[in-house]
Specification:
Order of helices and strands: EEHHHHHEHHHH
Distance between the termini: 22 Å
Helix content: 55-70%
Shape: globular
Strand content: under 5%
InterPro entries: DhaK_L_YcgS, DhaL_dom, DhaL_dom_sf, Dihydroxyacetone_Kinase
Number of domains: 1
Number of strands: 3
Protein name: Dihydroxyacetone kinase subunit L
Pfam family, one: Dak2
Radius of gyration: 16 Å
GO cellular component, one term: cytosol
CATH superfamily: DhaL domain
CATH topology: Serine Threonine Protein Phosphatase 5, Tetratricopeptide repeat
Keywords: Kinase, Transferase
């Protein structure tokens, strides 16, 4: 396996590391995510995501993607085919849009990272028809994209992803007092208040995995 990152950006090995770290953190939080979903949804968010990311790990054991975009596309196709409920189509669309945004680039600099995150967020918006403040995963993704864009001015690839992860975590927490406006949770009205959105919670975990992989790659402070 090649070095995870370069001075110019984050390469395919980083993308693979991100997916592997995502699989691990989803597995570790499988029960907690399902408990969040049980309070306001179907109760299967953690189980579904764990199934999908376990399938991604199996795919990576078979063949290592040559570019970040190829890794994102593989993840998208796997999640769409293996994950039930809303999570599969939403995360699948996010990774597919990210793959399109970065194309065949060998490594992602801060500008391309922001493009990937923005495309992923916009894909979720298009698929789920959600807006910020409606107690969905968009409440994690939108602040993540905004923070990433701000950090890209003079920051390293790792700086971009660290900013995105921190903003996503804060965004997920901020869903606690919201009334749900989309999905099954919307049927609960005010009873959804006080419960964290499971999609926002899992988004924060996955974006933190991306940042951890970038820091591990040694690109922090490298710039682009």
């Amino acid at each position: 396996m090649s070095d995870t990152g370069t001075g110019q950006g984050l390469d395919a090995a980083w993308a693979v590391d991100w997916l592997l770290r995502s699989a691990a953190v989803v597995a570790d939080n499988r029960v907690a995510l399902s408990e969040l979903d049980r309070a306001i949804g179907d109760g299967d968010h953690g189980e579904n995501l764990d199934r999908g990311f376990s399938a991604i790990v199996a795919k990576l054991d078979e063949e290592e993607p040559a570019t970040p975009g190829a890794a994102f596309k593989m993840a998208a196709m796997t999640l769409m085919s293996k994950v039930g409920g809303a999570a599969g189509p939403l995360y699948g669309t996010a990774f597919l849009r990210a793959a399109t945004a970065v194309g065949d680039a060998d490594a992602l600099d801060p500008t391309l990272l922001v493009a990937a995150l923005t495309a992923a967020r916009d894909g979720v918006v298009a698929r789920g028809k959600a807006e910020p403040g409606e107690k969905t995963m968009i409440d994690a993704w939108t602040p993540a994209v905004d923070a990433a864009a701000a950090a890209a001015a003079g920051g390293s690839p790792a700086d971009v992803l660290l900013a995105a992860a921190e903003a996503a975590e804060a965004g997920a927490v901020a869903t606690d007092p919201l009334i749900a406006r989309k999905g099954r949770a919307s049927y609960l009205g005010e009873r959804a208040i006080g419960h964290r959105d499971p999609g926002a919670a899992s988004s924060a975990l996955i974006l933190r995995a991306a940042a951890d992989a970038a820091v591990s790659s040694g690109t922090a402070g490298a710039g682009a």
